[in-house]
Amino acid sequence: MNERVDVLIVGAGPSGLTLACELISQGISFRIIDKSMSSTKASRAIGISARALEVLHHFGAAEQLVERGVRCGHAHFHSGARQTAKISAETVRHCRFPFMLSVPQSATEEVLERRLTELGGTVERGVELVGLDIRTDSVIATVAAADGASEEPVTAGWVVGADGSHSAVRKFAGIPFDTQEAPETFMIVDVFGERSSTDAGHYYFHPDGMALIAPLPDGSFRLAATVHGAQGRATTLEYVQELFDRRTGSGIRVRELRDAGWGVATVKVRTGIASRYRSGRCLIVGDAAHSYGPLGGQGMNGGIQDSCNLAWKLALVCRGVAGESLLDSYEKERLHGASLAMRAATSQTRLATIRPRVVRYLRDALLGLGTVTGLLDRLLIPTLTQLSIGYPAEALPGADQAASAQAGRRVPDVAISATVRVHDLLQPGRFTALVVGARPTDSSEIEGIAKHFEARHRGLVSPVVLGREAIALSLDGIEQHVDADGVVHAELAVGRPSVLLVRPDGRLAARRSLSKAEELSSVLDQVLGSTAPLVAATR
Ligand SMILES: Cc1cc2nc3c(=O)[nH]c(=O)nc-3n(C[C@H](O)[C@H](O)[C@H](O)COP(=O)(O)OP(=O)(O)OC[C@H]3O[C@@H](n4cnc5c(N)ncnc54)[C@H](O)[C@@H]3O)c2cc1C
């Protein structure tokens, strides 16, 4: 029976599963289909960033993953056999996950699919999208059983293509996706073998190309390198051993090779970013929207963050609380994220493969100096953990535009007490009005603001008071915590009593002084946009 759902998600890789878990937590009806009969068995993406773990923590999947992975708190940089620099994620403040988690993608997908089942959802496997009729008020998808024996129509308000780099949704929606062949050829395999360091990633810079050794939880290692020549060259055990002896001098002894997802052969990759992430009622996330190449650790992490950004916006639009224009901010914000990720991946490879000797000496000397002074941690860790990536304020209508206001930035996950952190105050699909710096004498003003939000935006804004001391409040429904040592206040740079409007994805939308907090209502109106249907639904 073709019962209309709010959203049809095509593809149950990390991006589609993240979106499904987010939507189910926000009470949105959806179907999620995947043409494959099972989740991936390959290790593929092995590095999950701190920010992606925060996203997975929203719906209770991060802890299970952390249990199954290796916490890599450090990365070491070597010039040939000599270590030149080291960075440490342990310097990260105000984050529950101060490390890069090394865990195979097969485990990530398994954990996400199990979490979706626990939350009440199911992936329909062996079901492929084969047709899409895009209308102004809905989409009618044709889906087929994997054996081709049957087809059925699925009517949905929206379709999200989480269907990987060859995305059918992207093609049906006519979204251009120009890619270029990356100049490098890659060799990526997992190996069983002997090696001493098992809790850190090691990057080796060599005039001949770069190499990477990272630990995996079952005692094996991911080996990756840029190599010369065409793709398709078989990577034998002897070839890999010789390459890593020559480039790294790490002493790794390779005993057995295992396919990481691209065959045991050298590969060429194509990189690119789709020019749009939305066309009418079709949206794309993850590899359907971008392809960065395998070494920067951006692909899966980017897809998880696409889904986090899209989920709350799509949920508000489906519930009729926000207008379709809110979805355009998804495209603007995540296209911005994609171009930063592409730049990071490209410059990382360039830095590692510098050939002129003088420039290499200079690079190594600067990296060494950066390690001693701590500058390298300050420069690289925020990008590698993806915690510092903010969105341009102008992408979200209504958000504060002044750079000092920090709209679009992630609110730091400061520990308020031994058991509660700032991100614990956020609720799925709701904005949070975080009242900080208030005094006991501000109680009636706080209650007035809470009543105002409830009257203007019923159920959409949760007021939370975070004072330096307890404030007596007679109104029910206002959560309160005490920031006794003032760490949160210092971190949020709050001098006078203020209200911070925090988006459902933990990013700041706007802030006002307590006396002007009601202005945040009109900010929210602008963010949500008009709920009247847009005339030009297809761009
Ligand atoms: C060897 C290798 C190493 C990598 N290393 C890293 C890394 O270290 N870090 C990192 O971040 N990324 C890495 N990546 C990239 C990472 O694997 C991808 O970015 C990630 O899988 C993208 O997730 P996704 O959910 O967007 O798409 P996918 O994982 O590609 O999932 C798409 C899903 O859609 C389904 N599908 C496709 N078409 C249809 C259709 N018509 N109907 C129904 N279902 C459909 C597919 O069966 C699939 O399950 C690596 C990739 C490879 C191959």
Name the features:
Alpha-Beta Plaits; disordered C terminus; FAD/NAD(P)-binding domain; Glutaredoxin; flavoprotein; RIFMO-like; eight-stranded mixed sheet; FAD-bd; nine-stranded mixed sheet; FAD/NAD-bd_sf; 539 residues; binds flavin-adenine dinucleotide; alpha/beta; 3 domains; oxidoreductase activity, acting on paired donors, with incorporation or reduction of molecular oxygen, NAD(P)H as one donor, and incorporation of one atom of oxygen; 27% strand
The gist of it:
This protein is an alpha/beta fold. The protein has helices at residues 14-25, 50-58, 62-68, 105-118, 168-173, 237-248, 299-318, 325-352, 357-373, 375-384, 443-456, 487-491, 519-528, and strands at residues 5-10, 30-34, 47-48, 70-72, 74-79, 82-88, 100-102, 123-125, 127-134, 139-145, 151-161, 180-194, 200-206, 209-215, 221-227, 253-259, 267-273, 278-279, 282-284, 290-291, 431-436, 461-467, 479-482, 498-502, 508-513.
In words, what does this structure look like?
- The protein has 539 residues and is α/β, with parallel strands linked by helices.
- It folds into three domains: 191 residues, FAD/NAD(P)-binding domain (3-Layer(bba) Sandwich); 89 residues, 2-Layer Sandwich (Alpha-Beta Plaits), CATH 3.30.70; 131 residues, Glutaredoxin (3-Layer(aba) Sandwich).
- It contains 13 helices and 25 strands.
- Strands 5, 6, 12, 13, 14, 15, 16, 17 and 20 form a nine-stranded mixed beta sheet that branches.
- The longest helix is centred in the middle third of the chain and has 28 residues.
- It is globular, with a radius of gyration of 24 Å.
- The relative contact order is 0.13.
- The site of flavin-adenine dinucleotide has 35 residues, from helix 1, strand 2, strand 9 and helix 7.
